[in-house]
Amino acid sequence: MVAYYYIRLRMDINGKYFKSYLEREDAFKKQYNAERIKKQHSKGKLTAHERIALLFDAGTFEEIDAYVTPLDLGVDFGKVEKSYGDGVVTGHGKIDGRLVFAFAQDFTIMGGSLGIVHARKIAKVQEMALKMGAPFIGINDSGGARIQEGIASLSGYAIIFNNIIQSSGIIPQISVVMGPAAGGAVYSPALTDWVFMTSNTSYMFVTGPNVVKEVLNEEISSEDLGGAEVHARKSGVANMIYDDEENTIIAVRKLLSYLPSNNLENPPVAAPENDTPGVNERLRDIVPDDPNKAYDVRDVVNLIADRNSFFETSELFAANIVTGFCRMEGKTIGIVANQPKVLAGVLDIDSSTKGARFIRFCDAFNIPILTLEDVPGFLPGKDQEHAGIIRHGAKLLFAYAEATVPRITVILRKAYGGAYIVMNSRGLGGDFNYAWPSAEIAVMGPDGAVAILYRRELAEAKDPAAMKKELVKKYRDKVANPFIADEKGYIDEVIDPAMTRMKVLSAFSALSNKSVKVPSRKHGNMPL
Length: 528
Hints:
The protein is an alpha/beta fold. It has helices at about 1-15, 15-30, 35-40, 50-55, 115-130, 150-165, 185-190, 210-215, 220-225, 230-235, 245-255, 295-305, 350-365, 380-385, 390-400, 415-420, 445-455, 455-460, 465-480, 480-485, 500-510; strands at about 60-65, 90-95, 100-105, 135-140, 175, 180, 195-200, 205, 240, 310-315, 320-330, 330-340, 370-375, 405-415, 430-435, 440, 495.
């Protein structure tokens, strides 16, 4: 109202001022002509403003620096379009009523290429988000650094990267890749907490297909080199992928609903699902009697958590470990679970790194961690050893031991050797450790232990198979039995599986005021 009164006053004093205002608005609208928008839509992509409108609560987004223009560096090389906004939309608004800052690169303006003004716009809202303690979302759709601006555009990337790093662990940072992200531009998403991609329309790579062909003489498409499926399944760079942009943005909003706005707040509490039973007898039937038979650990998660609250992260990458957020009585909980359906739930390089990254995020943002354990060990073999399974496995160990949020473990079945230690054991600082009666806690699996301890006897036996079967049973009864661990105080209790939700809720309630004084130091030296 005040702005309208001011404009009317200026118009009354001198009509030319208002005329200039309207002319500029008209020029701004004309740069988003129907042809450009149609071209963007023909690729299965929304425009920057359409993406922003979907992301934020209706009518809450306030754009900043909409009328800035590219910097004239006086370099007569290539053409720079004199557009308003310099190819990026920046501003703030509300998502589910909470303040969020964001940018959306505009591919319809100079291919969304990043020049120094473009970069300064992004840096401005990054710094505002940090000051306000609000989450930051970047929607990437860019041809990369603006070649015409040379070192200025490269400097712009450096400023953005530095801001991401300064905000890391203080505010949640989410990247949404909805088009190309190539060259140095890929490190902006890689530095943030979460990366979303859209199938068939988004891709990331340090060097594109043309460079690969020129240097290595290999023919490869953008999709096969760095498409969403590649980064979700193989590289692990993308945490979540969806079939279209609308569902991708809906998922971003859903993820935010589990997270606090900053590291000084606790996660938001949703209305609890009162129809989730505290005691569920179905949990007694999930783990098969045959210890070598697989099951889906997500069935356990879904019966323990509030109904329909589990949001899995990095589902397609390192699927032998499951990570994600759920709610228990409306409160956000981070889930880390070995997955017997994939590689029997063993820990390997990728699953160790995936788990460590997730745990550190939860710890940074005050999200309690529930670990569901069924792990036969680390994946053996030359490939894993030579690629550094020791170093990568140590990341998971380090992340758990460093975490000061409430940490609870439930051993569902196997808990062998070093993998038992790594998965939030009591000795590593886990607050509560429970086990189901089906748990097997030992230095190694029964078959391996019997083969080592009774090598000579088995070699001399008339019926080695029958003897081994008997010894394996004896090992399970006398050594790996969870009641032995319970009686010796290495776990807190062997529990009825049906009571798991009730036990976990009680433990998290007891830990609600947990406080840990960490040693004074600049930072630990994680084995990266």
